[in-house]
Every structure is written in C-alpha cells, then in structure tokens.
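pipeline: protein-struct stage 2 | run 1193 | NDP-hexose 2,3-dehydratase
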Amino acid sequence: MSAPATLVARSGAGTAERLALSAATAEGTHTATCEVPGWLEERRRSGGAVIRRIPFAELGHWSFAADTGDLRHRSGRFFTIEGLHVARPGAQWQQPIIVQPEIGILGILAKEFDGVLHFLMQAKMEPGNPNLVQLSPTVQATRSNYTKAHGGTEVKYLEHFLAPQRERVLTDVLQSEHGAWFYRKRNRNMIVEVDGDVPADEAFRWLTLGQILELLRLDNVVNMDARTVLASAPAVPAETRALSSDSGLLTWFTGERARHDVRVRRMPLREVAGWRTDASCVSRADGRFFRVVAVSVEGAGREVAGWTQPIIEPVESGVVGFAYRVFDGVPHVLAHARVEGGFLDTVELAPTVQCAPSNYAPLPAAHRPPFLDALLNASGDRVRYSTVHSEEGGRFLNAESRYLIVETDEATTPTEPPPGYHWVTPGQLNWLAGHSRYVNVQARTLLAVLGTVAPGRGAR
C-alpha cells in the first residue's frame, strides 16, 4: 500500500517576508558594508589580470568560418558571432549578434545567520568590466564552463544548483539577456537556501540583501548577473491598488506582443549589410551602435588562468531610466513594451528610456526616443536614483549605462501615455519578473532598487 500523499503550501511560506527582513538589515554578521569596495579592489590588485585588445588573427581556438564568415570556437561550444536580419513594418536592419543557445546558471546561495538571510556573493573578474572585479552571484557559469569545455577547474559551489532540494529554492526562473546583442539568450536565475556549514572561500562574502541594496548605489560594484537574480526574487508588494489591475496589465501586454510583426532570421556574418570587417574589428561603416573586437585575458584567477575571445564593445555609454510618479499615494513607473531583435518573444517590458543618445544624433528630432529629454533634463531634486552600472562583463567590453529613476509629472509623462507605454507599480513589475520573458534585463536592474526609492528623496 502506498504512503499517503503529503501536501505542501502552494507558495513558499514567508519567503517574501524573509527577503524583506534581509533587505531591511543594513549590516550583516560577517562583513561590514563599507569594507566591500576595498575588498573588491584588493581582489582586483591581487588577481593581476591583464586585458589586451588583439587582432582577430591572435585569437586562440577562434576563427572566421570559411563558408559563412561567422566567428566560432573550434570546439563548437561557448558562443558564435553571426549575422541577424530583423524586419518590421516600415523598418528593417542587419547586425552581428551573439548566438549562445546553452542555458547558464546564475545562482546565489542563501543562509540564515542570527535569523536573517545572508547571500554568498563572489568577487568575480570579468574581462569586460571597466574595473574588472565586481560583486557577482555565488555561481555565474555557462554550461560550457561548468562542464569544463575549456579544460579548467571546477566551479565552486556548483553542486548546490545542479540538483537542489525543490523546497529550498527561493527563486528559479529563466530570464532573457540583452535582446539587442544576444539571440534568444536565457539564463537560469536561482536563489537556493542551504543549511549547515558552508565555508566562504576567500573570494566570497556573506551579505544581507540590505547591504547589497546599499552597494547598488555605488558605480560599478554589483554586476549585472547579481542584479537580475535579486530582481527575480519575490517581494512583499507595498501596494494593493494600481492604475491597472493585474489582469488588465496582462491584457495590455499580450496585446503589445500580438500587434508587433517582427520577423527575424539568422544569416552569415559576412553578408551583413552596412558592416565591415578589418584585422581587429567588425563595425558599422558609420561607426554607430557597437563593434565586435577581440581581447586577450591573462592572470584571470578563474577556472582557467588565461584565454582569448571575441567581445562586443558599444560605441558609447547608455542611458536607462524609469519615469516615476505617485498616483493617489501609490508609486508607479512608466514601462515600455520594447521590441528587440534577439528576444524570443516580440517584446519585453523595458524601462521608459533605454538608448545610447548619440545613436540618434543624425536622425530628425521626431525619431528621438520618447521621454529621453524629460529624464536627462530633470532637476536634481527629482532624481531618485542615479548610478552607473556595467552590463555583462563576459561578453561586453566597457558597456556602461547611467541607470536613473526620475520623478516626473503630468506635463512630461501623462497619466494616459502614448501607445507602447504603460504605468505599472513596483509590485506588478516584481510579479511579472517572477516569470520568463516578461521584464527585460535593464528593467530588472532598476527593479532591484525600486523598493528603496521614495518620492521626495533625491539620489544619494
């Protein structure tokens, strides 16, 4: 006779509340917040990593395919640089794109100390980071890396994420990455709670969520992968009302996905129109948007000590920002249903503004991104958050954006926004971020800090 079935609660008991307690805990039991920037800098100095730009001919194990011109690793693993053709009604373009079909793991270990959840964060070197070493998840690895396609060492703490006890998983969701530079790329974003003794290696520290949120106010300290994992975690909604009900929001968003006709096909890199390849760069003839270059990494202190790789380098820093308003006491941000060629679905929810302004300099004023000037020209007392963050340092070189949350008004961001835009609460955005392919990676960075923003309090 089989054992009687055991039922469990449909939602993890108190998970959001436990995370909220950690977010409210300004100092942890192991490391003072003020020590973290110095620790990261010490790790950078002691690591001694050297990043050099190199011509494509010096890439080890990488080459342009004779038939397509695609840039590939000889193992067939890691990623490729291919071409992409995107067609929409009234617009089409071609570009290089990173194709990396394997799903990586972005995982953070959580453990209670003195009744408060702490998170095991890593000081990790990435060649594209402007300052090389940033605060990263416990595990940040592609499948090629953790299956040791590079012949390197084991990924520390990986075992906790490959087969976790399901009832110990606090968050687990496949999230997209940059749709302008990746073709349908997804990573598994996880927070897994552990018991017992889990020693922190010298490159790791236990921090509360409150400490991490404070560090998110510093330029280039918390990396993109840590930001997206934390944004995917459940939060206690601070609001019970909104301009749109949850079902109304979903209906609007589903309508946005349905109305956009986006046709995408991969193509040989050598056939991409408007781009040229020389000895050290694949770039647009007009110099806009980004370029593909190559780098050599030495003394990395990673699973392998050194390697070479292609990497995408944007031509300038970006501006990423949410317009923020309070309606009848309830905070809202203005989200944009944004089309990007690399998305698996047609659109994802993006910040109000997400662009590199110089890319629009040659275009008529009517083609300038909506609301860009409202965010850039806001007075200092309206800026609730302003911090420079870099994007994924393993694939993008010196890719930085100024992340903003700016309090606006009816004159600049009306209650009835133009098509493609919608007011959502932080709680609604967090609810959607708990599911795949709803909230893009830039919006998730801002979502990670939205709970710390209050009207009338300027940026620190």
